[in-house]
Prior knowledge:
It holds the Pfam family Imm1. The chain is α+β, with helices and mostly antiparallel strands.
Amino acid sequence: MQAWIDNIATPVADVAELNAILDPEPPKGVTLASDDGRRTLHINFYGGRSGLFWETETDLLLAWGPVPPGAPADQVVGDAEYAYDNPWFALPDGAEPFEVTPAQARQAAHEFLRTGGRPTNVQWVVKP
């Protein structure tokens, strides 16, 4: 995997190398790309909140928010209007859609490093 920050690529082979990039103070924006360049996870850190964007040859997805308790994992809806109407996409009180905590963003980065696939700790909406 490669971590891109300010147009500079850094190889990431294990959790320690990923943590060195994301902790203790992560860069504002980092893009994690699979070795073949076909899957990317873009992470933006804004203090106490974060945004995730997933991109493949066929998918452009925004993280809606964390997976609520009891909801099926790895859900994707076609647009935000459907997410608002879908009870499985309920957000915690006061949460804004398209935002996750920095801890959830780090968890997504770790899952991508481990599996090479789209993180399942958040729900996804097709980018308009």
